[in-house]
Design a protein that fits this description.
about 300 residues, alpha/beta, Metallo-beta-lactamase, Chain A, Arc Repressor Mutant, subunit A, 6-stranded mixed beta sheet, 5-stranded mixed beta sheet, 11 helices, 14 strands, about 35% helix, globular
Length: about 300
């Protein structure tokens, strides 16, 4: 399915979210800005598309650092830019509370940025001559939204729906929240006339029915035993850390994992491993999944296949 004129998808690696750039005569905008360590690449990609025009607006679907880590460099480059975040996160950005914004909890980096607007549920946003409606999409993140253009049947799904699943249900790592919200989000998407999904990670796809069915199957599997979601969450957070650093001394793995609050909470709640046992389990799981390898005394990242 061909994208409408003025809409561009920049598919990124798994450390960074995809970027969706909109360009028309009145306004330029980007939805999600990738991770901090890729900020220079993000800026270069955006500048190449804009060909000398300024970037007018940033819209963050949610404030995990792989979706907003490029905000600061874009704001520094385009001082008049308007930044919009989910309404529930607006004050946290305004007062910059890294703890409540989850950056510290997940052990991820994000430079402080500012925001001028909080996006409300059912709010309409005009981008590249098209009307997009923001829908609350809890589950992966309690304050995430997705954007739907009904006319063209295009859904910007963030981490609520991928071709093969969805993002980790992080709220369930330290509470019982998240499973119902994920199911409700999938039901909402299923009720829409979606013909093309632009996910937060991975290629855009048109096999919407199949993706929703696979996602429902996965949420059933995870909800049947929340330990599975916790194990997956720990592996994902460890993989993210490894993608950021590329190499980690094996002797440093226990300390690094213990320093990430959400990993510690999930471990206490579900696994109850000591630091060394947790490190051994995590390294073993990453190696088994083909996500990492051991070279000498280091754990080394293996780039995923896209």
């Amino acid at each position: 399915m061909k994208l409408p004129e003025g809409m561009h998808v920049l598919e990124r690696g798994w450390l960074s979210s995809n970027n969706i750039v909109f360009i028309d005569k009145e306004k330029t905008a980007i939805v999600d800005t990738g991770y901090k360590s890729h900020e220079e690449q993000t800026l270069e990609l955006v500048q190449n598309l804009l060909t000398g025009r300024p970037l007018d607006a940033i819209y963050n679907t949610h404030l995990h650092s792989d979706h907003c880590g490029g905000n600061r460099i874009l704001q520094d480059t385009y001082p008049k830019i308007h930044t919009a975040v989910p309404e529930a996160e607006f004050r946290r950005v305004e007062n910059w509370d890294a703890r409540l914004l989850t950056f510290k909890a997940t052990g991820q980096r994000c430079d402080q940025f500012h925001a001028e607007e909080g996006i409300k549920t059912n709010q309409k946003i005009r981008l590249a001559g098209m009307d997009w409606v923001a829908h609350c999409a809890g589950g992966h993140h309690p304050y995430s939204y997705i954007l739907f253009n009904e006319q063209n049947g295009i859904l910007i799904s963030a981490d609520a729906l991928w071709q093969k699943g969805f993002g980790v249900i992080f709220p369930a790592l330290d509470s019982w929240a998240g499973f119902k919200e994920t199911r409700d989000t999938l039901d909402m998407i299923e009720a829409m006339d979606v013909r093309l999904v632009i996910p937060g990670h991975g290629k855009p796809f048109t096999e919407v029915k199949e993706a929703i069915e696979a996602a429902h199957s996965r949420i059933n599997y995870l909800e049947a035993d929340p330990l599975r979601n916790a194990q997956n969450g720990i592996k994902v957070l460890a993989k993210f850390l490894l993608m950021d650093k590329q190499r980690i001394k094996l002797t440093q793995v226990p300390k690094l994992l213990a320093s990430i609050p959400l990993i510690s909470v999930a471990n206490r709640r579900y696994l109850s491993y000591g630091d060394i046992h947790l490190a051994y389990w995590t390294v073993t799981q990453l190696k088994r999944a083909g996500a990492a390898k051991v070279e000498g005394d280091e754990l080394v990242n293996i780039e995923p296949a896209y």
